[in-house]
Amino acid sequence: MALTKINNNTLSAVSELPSGISGQNYPAFEAYLSANQSVSDNAVTKVQFNTELFDTDSTYDNSTNYRFTPGVAGKYFIYSSILNEAGSNSNLIEAYMYIKKNGANVLELETSLNNNPGRLMPTFGMATLDLNDTDYVEIYGRLNSVSGSGQLFEGNTTYKRATKFGAYRIGD
Question: What is the DSSP string of 13-55?
């Protein structure tokens, strides 16, 4: 049985979902960066999301490869955020995020402060991907700063779960 919304606020059980829609959004996970991760200036760097909030099917590797491998083919909603820090005020020029499937970019994002550099800048990304059971998804970031030193991805110490990565299955 699945629940469906009727008349804007009443939930009712239905026996079937439309074709291609799964009744459960599994596998699913969310992980975050527990401590600051130092990065080199203007270098594409894998974000090491090392603490799992949940992982329904043990599909996220939080200690070695920092990647999601679904184990079940389907359509997945992938999301991530990175809180980028340049180490000092008026030092951060640009921040980038890359969602990679099997090592290839499927989403590239840039946030730029070229005319008014700052210290902190979040990047947010999301994608819907068709994945087979052995595909893998990883998140990378890149910071460009004025001084070229002191860059990091913010961990969970000051800003709770600001740097995170998650995914869940949305259909077959």
Answer: EES-PPTTB-SS--SEEEEE--S-EE--TT--EE----EEEEE
